[in-house]
Amino acid sequence: MKNLLTYGGVALVAMLSITSCTQTVRELNPAVTPVSTLTAPENNTSVRLEPSTPASVQFKWEPTQAAEGVLYEVAFDKPDGDFSKPFYKTVSDGLGVQPQLTLSHNDLKKIAALGGIAASSTGSVKWTVLASIAFNRQVSTVNRVLTMTRPAGFAELPDSLYLTGTATEGGDDLAKGIRLRKTEDGVFEGYTSLKEGTYYLTDKLTGNGKRFYVASDTIREGNTPTTLTGPAKTYRLRYDFNIATAQATEIQSVGLFMSAYNKEIGTLTYAGNGAWTAASIPVEFYPFSWGRDERYKFVIRTASGLEYMGSSTVNNNSPAGAPASYYYVQPVSNSQWDNTYKFDPAADGKKVKVDLLLRANAPYTHQVTVLR
């Protein structure tokens, strides 16, 4: 009898569960009508793309008259296409729920390239909206033309960048390519020396990486190396693939600038691999009436003028017990007192060893060692 009651209870629970599930199941209605009204941007709108800015374009339309659960996609095709095979599709904002799509100029630059619009050129693409529920997809009954002007940049931005060749510090051994720091999407920077010889840029330290070269301060894709002549020099190199520009700034010297004296108290020598060093610089804190001043930062002399590197903190405390980030360096103003560091009190009246490290694989930083 006990077993019978147990089995009966189990059966009753199962029946209730089935009944409960049956009550919550809703049949999906796959009926969906095409989008019939596009609201923005206007037909034949022209956009000059600026991918290095936060600019964007919003595509908007009136929602379809359909049951809930509709998914929206925006499709792009060439001017003579019929959207049977669009070259690019993407879901709308809100994971496909909202009747709008926001695309940055950087996204549109890639779409323009896929649509056959070359760099430094103007061309047009068509766009429309696809509305779907389950497997039922309807193409909008209307479409619009968007005209875009691409800058002289690359549609696909490299995620990493290396410098290699006989003119570089690593020589023509690809495995020893000089890594450049990625400062933002498509923008790279490196401190290194170049000598007579050839060099090129690549996104991989393997044979199958894309290669780039520089001609008239413009980045171009290809296997043609850039040729250098003359004596070796130290540079800050910057490459912006968003606008395909290259900039090489010669660094003539790096000095240790002491604020109270308002001048350099020592010069650092380039030692290779993005590092400058001074083996021994005498330090004497400046005697004011209120005490002795120990503030310093770095001054870089370039072919274009003076630049300063210092702390992100305007007014720093003593370095005692400070974290490694205390010594990080970044470009700062030429203010005599702001964005400076403070020497270890033990440096007063002593000599110090100073290393400025501007390397791609770590934060830009420096080290000061008091010599005993």
Topology record:
Elements (H helix, E strand, L loop, with lengths): L1 H23 L13 E3 L4 E4 L7 E6 L9 E7 L10 E4 L8 E5 H10 L7 E12 L2 E4 L4 E6 L12 E3 L13 E2 L1 E4 L2 E8 L2 E6 L8 E5 L2 E4 L4 E3 L4 E8 L4 E14 L4 E10 L2 E8 L3 E3 L2 E3 L1 E8 L2 E6 L19 E3 L8 E2 L8 E7 L7 E7 L1
Distance between the termini: 95 Å
Overall number of domains: 3
- CA radius of gyration is 31 Å
Helix content: under 10%
Task: Describe the protein in words.
It contains two helices and 29 strands. The strands form five sheets. Strands 12, 13, 18, 19, 20, 21, 24, 25, 26, 27, 28 and 29 form a twelve-stranded antiparallel β-sheet that branches. Strands 2, 4, 5, 7, 8 and 9 form a six-stranded mixed β-sheet that branches. Strands 10, 11, 14, 15, 16 and 17 form a six-stranded antiparallel β-sheet that branches. 29% of the residues are buried. It has 372 residues and is mainly beta. The chain is elongated and about 85 Å long. The longest helix has 23 residues. Strand 14 and strand 15 form a beta hairpin. It has three domains: 112 residues, Sandwich (Immunoglobulin-like); 82 residues; 121 residues.
Give short descriptive properties of this protein.
Immunoglobulin-like, twelve-stranded antiparallel sheet, six-stranded mixed sheet, 2 helices, 44% strand, disordered N terminus
How would you briefly describe this protein structure?
Helix content is 9%, strand content 44%. The protein is mainly β. The chain has 3 domains: 38-149, Immunoglobulins (Immunoglobulin-like), CATH 2.60.40.10; 162-243; 251-371.
